Amino acid sequence: MAVKPLTQKPKPNLVRQFSNFIHTVTGLEKTCRLIQSFAQIVIQLNIPPGSTTTAQWETAISQIALTRRFFRFFAFIDCFSQVYGLLGGAQSLGLFMTLVEIGRWSCLGLYLVLEDLTILHALGVHPVAWNTPVLVEAFKFWFYSLALSVFGAVCGLLFTSSSPASNKTSNNEKKKENKNAEKTAPNTDDSQAKAQRTALMKRIVADGCDLLIPGVFVGWMQISDLMISVTMVISTVVSGGDAWVKAQE
Q1: Distance of alpha carbon 139 from alpha carbon 111, whole angstroms
Q2: What is the spatial distance between Cα 50 and Cα 47, in angstroms, rounded to a whole number?
Q3: Structural domain includes residue 30
Q4: Closest to 236 measured CA to CA, from 17, 15, 12, 26
Q5: Does pLDDT of 2 surpass 80?
Q6: 68 domain-assigned
Q7: Which domain holds residue 49?
Q8: Mean pLDDT across the chain
Q9: 82 pLDDT above the threshold of 80
Q10: How far is CA 170 from CA 106, 164, 197, 201, 229, in A?
Q11: How far, in Å, CA of 64 to CA of 59, rounded?
């Protein structure tokens, strides 16, 4: 019986890929974030402060930022679901890394909840006097979440970087015991470790760049608005790459 060759699915063109991307919630939010960051760069570079054009651009930026808040309004549910899964032992992590991940997702969930409390003020429907203090506390939790994310990714990168050597030793022993089995069975340990390290490095870059936003907002860092906008572009492109690939599946 003849075996039919596997036909590879044709890759869609760039326009179709972009359409698939923006038809996802994550893709649409990342697109708005990229537009917002580019608009902030334009204001810092080309438009004199205090002009009518500046006010128009700032209005557009604030509206885009408000739109993005609706995309993540219920995102705290996913964060607390992650915490529930970690508390239930759903993931095979060590105790220390589990605590780091619990802290990371808990802080991110608290940030989103506190931000949601101020949505009516941002809309102008119900202005409140406690809007700014709540946002400051929210951004503190966001800062803690990003810091724990970067810390956890660095620890994970250090752990996975030491794994290839041990894997190589064990693989050599297996080859000596059964050479024929090693020839037929593909070794995916190295590729999985490489993919994991790449994901951790992307996480460090993206969350490390985003760390500047809450740091400046709460007054813990002194960085120019232009630098924040540039790092915002970087983090959006890095984190949006995986969402782009996932949208094509």
Answers
A1: 6
A2: 9
A3: yes
A4: 26
A5: no
A6: yes
A7: 16-72+226-248
A8: 85
A9: yes
A10: 38, 10, 20, 26, 47
A11: 9
Say how many domains are in the chain: 1
Q: Which two tokens stand for residue 52?
A: 């009518």
Rg of the chain over Cα atoms, rounded to whole angstroms, equals: 23
Please enumerate in sequence order all residues whose Cβ is within 8 A of that of 28, keeping only pairs 6 or more positions apart, or say none.
22, 71
The number of residues making up the chain comes to 249
Give residue 9's pLDDT: 67
Residue 127 lies in a domain: no
CB atoms within 10 A of CB 40: 22
pLDDT band at 188 (very low <50, low <70, confident <90, very high): low
CA distance 71 to 84: 23
* CA–CA distance, 212 with 186 (Å, rounded to integer): 43
Distance CA 54, CA 33 (A): 19
Residue 177 has pLDDT above 70, yes or no: no
pTM of the model: 0.84
Look at 163 and 249; give whichever has higher pLDDT.
249
C-alpha–C-alpha distance, residues 208 and 216, integer Å = 13
The token pair at 248 is 């094509």
Specify the residue for token string 């951004």: 139
- Give pLDDT tens digits for 86-141: 988 756 678 899 999 999 999 999 999 999 999 999 999 999 999 999 999 999 99
Domain-located, residue 123: no
User: Can you tell me the distance from the alpha carbon of 23 to that of 29, in angstroms, rounded to the nearest whole number?
Assistant: 10
Task: Identify the pLDDT of residue 182.
Answer: 47
Contact (CB, 8 A) for 168 and 176: no
